[in-house]
Amino acid sequence: MREITPAEALAQPHLRWIDVRSPQEVQESPVPFAQNVPLFDDEERAVVGLTYARQGQEAAIRKGVEIVSPKIPQLIQTIQSHLQPHEEPLIFCWRGGMRSKAVATFLDLVGIPVCRLEGGYRAYRNLVVQTLEESATYPHFLVLHGMTGVGKTMLIQRLREEGYPVIDLEDLAQHRGSAFGTIGNLNPRNQRTFDAFLFQALRGLSGSPLCIIEGEGKRIGKVVIPEAMMEAQIRGTHLLLYASIPVRVQRILHMYTQAATDLEQFHREVKQAVSRIEKRLTPAVRAELYEALEKRAYSKVVELCLHHYYDPRYQHSMKQYPVSFQPVSAENFNEALQTIKDIYLQYASAPAAT
């Protein structure tokens, strides 16, 4: 059994990361590419923790052994089932403590070559934070800007589907970056989860000197974009997409309604979102907005929100942006897509992109 650091482990693709923490721990602080094979489930972990609090460490260890002993054969079998012939398990828990040591020992005793992550999840988390704080981590960004509804997210998704190097920050945050950002089947991620997925996305760029992103503010939902990434975004090449109000309304409705299976739930979510911005609207606009809501005239709701809330805020924020913009018409989606591809190829082939 050998111990290695997270940086060393990431450089060895034959290692299969096995996370032996409880499901709740993994949900709150995941390693996206790891396989969870919990030594204790959530209830068992709570029992061991309570035993430790009431009776001390020795009693907690005994309780843990009592819980785990009957599960050892199945635990080993489950881990083996996740291994390809060339792979070796890398076992980790929260701090690289007793749980990972126990599981690694079980595997070692039955002759399975095994590694253990030094410092556990906390060491991995420290590496993630340190990496995201370094400016050298980030490539040159081709940044898509534009008012709500011009199609930035749709373009990012299509470019990703076609194999272009893309980081979709709103997808990583599981939030659409607005007061309406949680409508639909989205579960906004916490900071640790967002950082882990961003770290993994950056590693997946495979050394590409240029990456396409959507221009974002410092915060998306519950998460904050790393300062070094914000600085890299400023240094990037900036495209300003524009489209007419009718086109933008149509795209917004499509984005928010395409996955809506429960129309009543969708209506409640829209009302909740409107309530979060109503204080910034005049009484007359507020009355018109709620009248449209009652009639379920969602096109009118979107149009009012654009005119009286989103567009003024976006125009103000863009005045604070210390960069120059290259305008791109997004009235026609496919033409905008092709224009962005052309600009990407122009910059990707230029020495300045590196």
State the CATH topology of the largest domain. Answer: Rossmann fold
CATH architecture designation of the largest domain: 3-Layer(aba) Sandwich
Separation of the first and last Cα atoms: 41 Å
In CATH, what is the class of the largest domain? Alpha Beta
Please estimate the helix content.
40-55%
Strand order of the largest sheet: 1-5-4-2-3
Uncertain regions spanning at least 5 consecutive residues: none
Count of DSSP helices? 16
The domain tally reads 2
Mean pLDDT across residues = 92
Computed CA radius of gyration, to the nearest angstrom: 25 Å
Keywords: Selenium
Organism: Bacillus thermozeamaize
Pfam family, one: AAA_SelU
Protein name: tRNA 2-selenouridine(34) synthase MnmH
Note down, in words, how this protein is organized.
- This protein has helices at 6-10, 23-28, 42-55, 57-68, 72-81, 98-109, 120-132, 152-161, 169-173, 191-203, 227-235, 245-257, 263-277, 283-294, 298-319, 333-348; strands spanning 2-4, 15-19, 35-36, 88-92, 115-117, 140-146, 166-167, 210-214, 219-220, 223-224, 237-242, 326-329.
- The chain contains 16 helices and twelve strands.
- α6 links the parallel β4 and β5 (115-117).
- The strands form three sheets. A five-stranded parallel sheet has the order 1-5-4-2-3.
- With 354 residues, the protein is an alpha/beta fold.
- The model has no long low-confidence stretch (mean pLDDT 92).
- It folds into two domains: 2-130, Rhodanese-like domain (Oxidized Rhodanese, domain 1, 3-Layer(aba) Sandwich), CATH 3.40.250.10; 135-353, Rossmann fold, CATH 3.40.50.
